[in-house]
Request: fold
Amino acid sequence: MEALQFPDYGFTIQSEGQKKQIFDPVRKKFIPLTPEEWVRQHVIQHLHQQYHIAFSLISVERELSYNGLKKRFDIMVSCSERPFACLVEVKAPQIKLTTETILQAAVYNKSYNCPWLWVTNGIQHAWLFMENNTLKPTEAPSVLCGLP
Reply:
């Protein structure tokens, strides 16, 4: 798999026939190792190790409904003080982050109004913060839950 802009987290990877699988600590099972899943697992570990978010507070690939359409978010972080703290949209490394990909995540966020939105392909990272009902580009936060 391609090197990403994350530390090496020492993943558990196994082969199932010709296909590789990676262990997802949130879903507690092995998942087919696609380029997007490679990024997703780095994000999960980053949330857990950098931001000290318990795996139990991270949701992965859950259905959401927006304007009658059924969609799936990639990752949602919950905190005791805010059930929807951060929505993460994950793309495969070869997918460039564009205004369109960021808008897709912003539309998903309308269902949750998370204060933090993170869009990443593992190489590029775009962080946005909700201020006065408007998502504004920002630097990566020092904390996602609790006080800085």
